[in-house]
Amino acid sequence: MFRLRASHLTTLLALLVAAAGCVTADSATRATGPRTTLVVENRNSGDMNLYLVRSGQRTRLGRVGGNQRQTFTLPAYVTESTTRLVLLADPVGSMMSPIEVPFTVVPGDRIQVVIPAY
After folding, report:
1. How confident is the model over 49-59, as pLDDT tens digits?
2. Count of CB atoms situated within 10 Å of the CB of 64
3. pTM of the prediction?
4. What is the Cα 89 distance to its own chain's centre?
5. What domains, with CATH codes, occur in the chain?
């Protein structure tokens, strides 16, 4: 009975390896498309949590430290076509209101945003 299970496992493993071999590099490249980057320069002394707002849906992008610059790669689904986005910079541990920066993006763009000191 153990040999029967082992042979089934071997067959299943062989099928999985064969299926993985069917994926080509070309199809993987086509799915990702051009890389879109967002460079955020935080001139404020406090850290900022960053969010992208698209069609009312907020997606966390990451965090940029105080007086630092950070480059983010935007998810492909965010830039499927020419899209109007809003960058929402929310100060960490502060009662200050979030900063909203609207912009339009096309796949492959490199966007630069400066968060001013206040």
Report:
1. 999 999 889 99
2. 24
3. 0.70
4. 16
5. 33-115 (2.60.40.2890)
